[in-house]
Design a protein that fits this description.
- By secondary structure, the chain is mostly beta strands.
- The chain has one domain.
- It has no helices and 6 strands.
- Strand 3 and strand 4 form a beta hairpin.
- It starts with 14 loop residues before the first strand and ends with a strand.
- The structure holds zinc ion (2 copies).
- The site of one zinc ion has 10 residues, from loops.
Amino acid sequence: MPDIESHQPIDYQLADRGLQEKGFIVTEAAAGDLEVVGTCPACLGTTASPWTYGLAGGKGVFKRQEKAKPRGPRTVYCECGYMHPNRPDTAWDLGCGAYWQVELPS
Ligand SMILES: [Zn+2]
Ligand SMILES: [Zn+2]
């Protein structure tokens, strides 16, 4: 894990960083829950993006529902958790505005 000192307080900017081939780890936290963890290529903050697929949560009758595991590139937004300068009030993400693609393991 990179230490916190490496984070760069760059200005908030929406920017497509393209496909990141390395440096991202996709883990399956639970059935139907993927988490993409890595270092933002823009601000170097540590970012973790949960992604749920398949089973929808809910009480009641247990229903087994098979859903294919997603594949291919998935767009991930920086969620480093820092307040970047010039971040617009309308921004919903918790990062610097950078986004990129990560290939999911098959
Ligand atoms: Zn950041
Ligand atoms: Zn970032």
